[in-house]
Structure formats: structure tokens, C-alpha cells
Design brief:
binds fe (iii) ion; 2 domains; binds benzoic acid; alpha/beta; 5-stranded mixed sheet; Protocatechuate 3,4-Dioxygenase, subunit A
Amino acid sequence: MGKVTLDNITDIVISSLGQNGEIDSRQREIMTSLIRHLHGFVKDVRLQHHEFLAACDYLARAGQTCDDKRQEFILLGDIVGVEVLVDMLTNVADGAESESTVLGPFYRDNPPVLPKGASTVQKAFDTQESVYFEGHIRDAEGNPLAGVILDVWEDAPNGLYENHDPDQPDFNLRGRFETDEDGHYAFRAIRPVPYPIPSDETAGELLRFMGHHPNRPGHMHFMIAKDGYRTLISQIFDSSSDWLDNDSVFAVKDSLVGEFVPAPGELGTDLYVKFDFVLARATAAASLAAE
Ligand code: BEZ
Ligand code: FE
């Protein structure tokens, strides 16, 4: 190995890959590109040693912030638009199926299994507006899909998800529903309000470093799954919400904006949202993502 210089350091590191143990072609592809981009960035900004140490300290503190309720690295990825980018590369939409968007850090598996039309609300807030959500889930050819499992979750009117709020019951505003034989789903919930993503700790430092606000527009989360189909992770955004054009995690897509309209009297809720979803077959989805 020759002596390192500013000009040859990148190639020297790349050519060292696999020198002491086998690595597969994907590992080589990822590490080659990562080293090239990382070295390019460091040269571009002429990163100084005190800045490098500050970055190491920052990442160490980000790690210390993580526990079973907080995944700081997802948040950091969201703030710089990486989660939505990875999502678009993973779940390539060919036009027929519904668009996906970020999962975010607040999903919990195994929410209460509820019958069609039931409510996810366990604790009422004075300011809440009740909403009846319904729609059909179909395949790309328009056939209704029965037995589709929908997990839904949202924040409370105080802007907090239940697992970040000791005053809410466990699994409040979360539920698991299933489509009927017509591919129809329905549930009752409340209007999701805009909220700030956690902006204490290192996520907040990054937001301030970028001169960003922490706010997200009101949205209902969905995870929609059926064997043989690509699991759709998505959100419905309230068309009249603040921050729709300026989401702190860049997750809004035009096709995911829904109208919260006054509900017909017989539904017994304040508002009504109709939103259909189209699922891609798992095989079709895998070949699109590989292209
Ligand atoms: C969310 O929608 O729950 C979320 C997404 C990204 C970052 C923080 C929160
Ligand atoms: Fe959310």
C-alpha cells in the first residue's frame, strides 16, 4: 500500500474492501458508494477536526437517546428526507397502486383487533372532532380484496401518540380492522391534528441546525397487509391542515390528501372521510423495486 495523499485516500480505502474476509457484492456496492460519497462530502466542506469530533459526539448522544419508545435515528433520517427517499425506492409505484409514505417512529404492533365500524377512541378529549373513515381496498385490476388487515394509528388532540403520553390509555387511537367480502373497511376515530415531531435532544439540534420547524400536518397512519400483496404503509393527510405544504419530514404526496367533510347524520360522527386504497401484488412489486 502506498502512502496516503488527499488524492489517493478514497481509492486506497475502496481497494481495501474485503482484504481480510469475504464480502458479498451488495456489501461491496454499498461500502464503495458510501466511502466515495463520504469522502466527497468531507472534501467538499473541508471538514475540520473539531467539527469531526462534534459529529462523533452528536452521534453518540443520538444513540444514547434511543430506547424502546424512541428511535432517534429514524427521526434524524426523516428530518433530512432519507426515510421518504428510501420508501420511494423500496415501494416503487407504477401508477395503479396507492402511494406509500413514511412509517415514522410511532407504530406499535398488535393493536386492539376491532370489528368493522368500531371506534379507536378510548379516552375522549374536549376538543376532538369524531370522524368516520371508510373505503374499499382493491387490487390493481379493480377486484375487491377481502380479509385485508388494516392497522391505523394517530395522535390525540394534544398532539401526542398514546405511547408518549402517560395520560392516555394503552393503545388509545390505535386499532386493527379487516375488510369484508366487498373489500370494504370502516372505523371511527378522530380528526388527527398537526403535531411537532420530537424536537428535544439530537433531533431538535438537527432541526435548528437546518433552520427548520418540527411540525407535521394532521394525518391518519395506515399499515395495510394481505398475503400475496405488498404491505402498504401510508397516511391520509387532512386537506385543510396547517403544514400540508411544509411537512417537517417531507412525507406528503398529492394522492394521499383526503377531504374531511361533514358526516351524514346517520353516521353519528362530526366528519366523514372516504378513501380507497389499491394494493400491488407482491411479485409485481418486487420486480418494480429491482428495476
Ligand atoms: C409520524 O408521522 O408519526 C412521524 C413520521 C416521521 C417522523 C416523526 C413522526
Ligand atoms: Fe404521525
